[in-house]
Amino acid sequence: MTLRNIKLVFLCLVTLTAQAGTSLDENFIPFTKDSWNLEKAKIVNIDGRQAISGVAVLTGQTFENGIIEMELKTDGSRGFPGIIFREDGAGNGENIYLRPHNSGRHDAAQYAPDFNDQTGWQLYYGEGFTASPTIASNQWLTLRIEVKDSKARAFLNDMSSPILVTPTLKGKPGPGRILISDGGKGTYLANFRMKKTSDLNFPEIPPAPTIISGLPSWKISKAFPADDPGIKNLSFLDAKNIEWTQIELEPSGLANISRYLPLVKDKPSVVYAKTVLKSDKQKRIKLEFGYSDDVIIFHNRRAVYSGQASFRSREPSFYGLVGYNDAIYLDLNKGENEILLQLTENFGGWGFMMRSVPAE
Q1: Strand 254-256 relative to strand 218-220: parallel, antiparallel, unpaired?
Q2: Domain match, 159 and 301 both
Q3: Residue pair 310/269 in contact by the 8 Å Cβ criterion
Q4: What's residue 16's pLDDT?
Q5: Which of 6, 67, 79, 263 has the fewest beta carbons under 10 Å from its own?
Q6: For residue 238, what is the DSSP state?
């Protein structure tokens, strides 16, 4: 645990005393068709409790700030039970979920925003995004999520100590739907409760540091089907007069393509991203980068790197997380140098990051 993460947890602990005993029993919402869309859920009786398996959508009301709570029981099977909130009906929302099969590991709990029906778990991980709680099997656990504006925290059984503190939510602010999901087989959900309130005490948390980059300005093309052979020839970018859209980078330097584009028909898709590096002389630089899922990098339309970093592409435990983990050396020309990426995505979050550092 980093020093900054220790400070985040401490700040939350000292502000939770009044909230730890908050009971939501009066805010219980039973699983009925009057309150829920249960088309993708099955109602069952588990240990004398009304429970569901599958996915249920709360209807008739929205949620922005407040407390969401539910109970869950898992047998430890591979799955991703959790809660999506502020969901807009078009696959955009905030997603906090558990991995019972990874109990105690670094990613047993995760906050991963959804953009255009893509959950960005490969783009957002580590401090503020993943945590390592123990998730007991074959007993009922209480998962609570507290949300205020751009901040959220999650609790599992112990309401005085959060398992995950997220200082900056990445999705769109404002009210949206709530969805609850068993995340696969082996988990049941029960006793859903919700309280809408902005009267939550979140400490002031310093923002994450900004990564200084020599490549701050990027534009992207539209998305193309990955199985279209015509897009592999770069001449089509000029021949078809592709329109380019300027995108914003996050403080980490992440270019989250999922925020701007859905996959084409929910299938593997390709996007092109480009920027221009200006140099007052010929010189060598080092480009550090990460990407999801596969990439070809071009310097002035000449391929200089090809890599594959999709889930399990390198070995069975490979996650394909995006970070500044790879590097190439480029010899820049005097004047303008185009850097072009051909980026292919399957699932897990579509994006890349790249920064220029002096060559060693």
Answers
A1: unpaired
A2: no
A3: no
A4: 47
A5: 6
A6: H
Domain that holds residue 95: 3-196
Clarify whether residues 41 and 158 are in a common domain: yes
pLDDT band at 19 (very low <50, low <70, confident <90, very high): low
Whether the CB-CB separation of 82 and 56 falls below 8 Å is answered with no
Q: Would you say residue 63 lies in a domain?
A: yes
Residue 204 belongs to a domain: no
Identify whether residues 39 and 121 lie together within a single domain. yes
Full 3-state SS string of 215-233: CCCEEECCCEECCCHHHHC
CB 326 within 8 A of CB 266: no
What are the structure tokens assigned to 244, written together? 């380019």
Q: Please, which residues bridge with residue 189 across strands?
A: 52, 72
pLDDT at 14 over 50: no
- What's this model's pTM, rounded to 2 decimal places? 0.90
Confidence of residue 233 (pLDDT cuts 50, 70, 90): confident
Domain boundary at 196, 229, 259, which? 196
